[in-house]
Amino acid sequence: xxxxxxxxxxxxxxxxxxxxxxxxxxxxxxxxxxxxxxxxxxxxxxxxxxxxxxxxxxxxxxxxxxxxxxxxxxxxxxxxxxxxxxxxxxxxxxxxxxxxxxxxxxxxxxxxxxxxxxxxxxxxxxxx
Length: 128
Fold this sequence. Notes:
There is one protein chain. The protein is of the alpha/beta class. It folds into 2 domains: about 60 residues, 2,3-Dihydroxybiphenyl 1,2-Dioxygenase, domain 1; about 60 residues, 2,3-Dihydroxybiphenyl 1,2-Dioxygenase, domain 1, CATH 3.10.180. The strands form 2 sheets. A 4-stranded mixed β-sheet has the order 1-4-3-2, covered by helices on one side. Strands 5-8-7-6 form a 4-stranded mixed β-sheet. The longest helix is centred in the N-terminal third of the chain and has 12 residues. The radius of gyration is 16 Å and the shape is globular. It starts with 11 loop residues before the first strand and ends with a helix.
């Protein structure tokens, strides 16, 4: 890196959602993210994971929401979380298993964003 160039790190990611309240509830109850703050206009919920990374949910009209990224979360125990999510009625698009990206599970959020779940132990033991 040139000496005059500062380094950078990703601080947060904004995704567009149809209903910020619905998505806020989904991410806080399903994945345990905490609310950092809310903005009324435009409707935005700023969430944060346990590592301090911010996920901003910005409300847009339905036709302007096109899921265009994959959200990957490291969790404590992917098998246990998947079992809990299934018991709560969540549909998993992939049960915990070895996938092309390693061992984990996949589901969709209310707007169709693909959410991948994995944990360190399972990835080392089963993700090979």
